[in-house]
Amino acid sequence: MHDVVIAGGGPTGLMLAGELALAGVDVLVLERRETAELVGSRAGGFHARTLEVLDQRGIVERFLDEGQTVQVLALGATALDLTDFPTRHPYTLGLWQNHIERILLGWVEELGVPIRRGVEVTGFEQDDGGVGVHVEGGSPVPARYLVGADGGRSVVRRAAGIVFAGESATRSALIAEVQVAEEIPSGVRHDERGIHGLHLMEDGRTVRVVVGEGRVGPAAEPTLEDLSAALTAVFGTDFGVHDPTWVSRFTDATRQAESYRTERVLLAGDAAHVHFPAGGQGIGLGVQDAVNLGWKLAQVVRGTSPDSLLDTYHAERHPADARVLQHTMAQTGLQGGNSRIAAVRDLVGELAAFDEPRRHVTGLLSGLDVHYDLGAGHPLLGRRMPDVDLDTPEGPRRAYAFLHAARPLLIDLGVEGRLDLAGWADRVDLVRASYDGTWELPVLGIVPAPTAVLVRPDGHVAWVGEGSDAGLREALEAWFGPARD
Fold first, then answer.
1. Interatomic CA distance for residues 30 and 227, integer angstroms
2. Which cofactor does it need (predicted)?
3. Model pLDDT for residues 247-304, shown as the tens digit of each residue
4. Reduced to 3 states, what is the DSSP secondary structure of residue 368?
5. Please, are residues 433 and 391 in contact by the beta-carbon 8 Å criterion?
6. How far apart are the first and last CA of the chain?
7. How far apart are CA 127 and CA 376, in angstroms?
8. What pLDDT is recorded for position 416?
9. What is the domain partition of the chain in residue ranges?
10. CA-CA distance, 230 to 461, in Å (whole number)?
11. Dihedral of alpha carbons 258, 165, 278, 364, sign
């Protein structure tokens, strides 16, 4: 019996597999695709907080080496500057999903995670002892827990009977990679059918096409003829499209699972939420779901923490994801082509020129302002730990360097080094250091300097010392299990 089976080997499933492997959990990935290589480019990158998460694991340079950074975000037609945000990654990374998956797969393979390809998950059954994962043409795969990371049409979610609530589609768009026989226009076009554009890919031959249909297209897989008709309706020509690598359809449907967990079955990524790709936040949300869930699931599997710790996954990620889904619906509204929507777009652009609205929206888009409700206290509580430069007895180190192994971290910044981890030293790393600088958070600005911080493996702060150790033991037990002799 495996500790955890993950249905789906996309970015979310791979990230979760890596997190669990770092924690020593026996994890198996089941992927329905026969080959490791994703056909086509698909999604196009991620934002600052996702880059920080990858930095926390020591693998961000693998992505930066292959992608292109841009120091602005888009709100409708308005560019938002984030160069003044307090992060080592004040930019968006442009990198196609096929490359993202390839890089993540390389990391996961280094960690020894087995991946079974060409395996179609069809359902499951569960009881108090575990989960039997049903697969097409084979015997059930036994596991203690199952995570559905199998996309917006998730079989796991449907088999679990979890309601996928939200807004139905009002329009759709086609996306494809093709060859063309005519010169393509540059730039992006807005009209009543949506946003349209053609982009020459890295090979100098293949053209990536996105074209709105002005309606909700049929459920059937789109064809080259559908793409030709949509292009002709917008541009007056189909540019002689031929030899498609792939053609797909996406809609502005916005839905979220009412629960991210039912007993031993959990959901992550698109299986838990779908939205229009405005703002480019899809892959990032899945990665952040994975790093929130991974360490919690590992602790429950190892018996370090009670099963109830898994309830905090839904409690934290559901509202964080819901906030982004609301924003993507607003972004979708700004993309209309009529004069009334254009007027709203212009007004939003004027408002975004002011610093406070800009910082508010940029914090949301970048993911840097994510705040889990861990109760009242210091402004750092529940927020991502800044990657500050620490002075340690071994020399200067970045805070994120201590998170590469995905272990909890207590950073003692007290002059006398009086904090200790008696009872938790086997699970939590202790770093004694000093920090000479201010503590700045996105949107909030400068905050009072702490004397210690307890950082979870996902990089969020679980406790803040303000001159004493009051509440530390309670936080350690709540997040990392009871003390041991």
1. 32
2. FAD
3. 999 888 999 999 999 999 999 999 999 998 877 788 999 999 999 999 999 999 999 9
4. coil
5. yes
6. 30
7. 38
8. 63
9. 2-167+255-366, 172-251, 389-480
10. 49
11. negative
Q: Alpha helices of 122-263 — where are they, by DSSP H?
A: 155-160, 224-235
Burial class (CB in 10 A: 0-12, 13-18, 19+), 303: exposed
3-state SS class at 334: helix
Q: Over the stretch 74-130, which tens digit does the pLDDT of each residue have? A: 777 788 888 999 999 999 999 999 999 999 999 999 999 999 999 999 999 999 999
Q: Residue 40 pLDDT more than 80?
A: no
Domain 389-480 in this protein, CATH class? alpha beta
What is the distance between the alpha carbons of residues 206 and 177, in angstroms, rounded to a whole number? Answer: 6
H-run or E-run covering 324:
helix 311-334
3-state secondary structure of 269: helix
The torsion angles phi and psi of 107, rounded to 5 degrees, stand at: -65, -45
Q: Residues 411-470: pLDDT tens digits?
A: 999 866 688 898 999 999 999 999 988 899 998 999 999 999 999 999 999 999 998 899
Q: Pairing mode, if any, of strands 2-7 and 141-148? A: parallel
- Asked if 389 contacts 396 with a C-beta cutoff of 8 angstroms, the reply is yes
Q: How many CB atoms lie within 10 A of CB 219?
A: 6
Q: Do domains 2-167+255-366 and 389-480 have the same CATH topology?
A: no
DSSP β-ladder status, 242-251 and 188-191: unpaired
Q: How many CB atoms lie within 10 A of CB 301?
A: 20
Q: What is the DSSP letter of 458?
A: T
Within 13 Å, how many C-alpha atoms sit on residue 200's CB side? 11
CB 37 within 8 A of CB 98: yes
CA distance 141 to 131: 8
Query: What are the backbone angles phi and psi of residue 363, rounded to the nearest 5°?
Result: -60, -40
Q: Has this prediction a pTM greater than 0.85?
A: yes
Residue that is written with structure tokens 């995670």 in the block: 113
- State the DSSP code for 184: P
Length of the chain: 485
Architecture per CATH, 2-167+255-366: 3-Layer(bba) Sandwich (3.50)
Q: CA-CA distance, 326 to 276, in Å (whole number)?
A: 10
Pick among 3.30.70.2450, 3.30.300.30, 3.20.20.150, 3.40.50.720: CATH of 172-251? 3.30.70.2450
Tens of pLDDT along 348-407?
888 888 989 899 999 999 999 999 999 999 999 999 999 999 999 889 999 999 999 999
**Amino acid occupying residue 29:** V
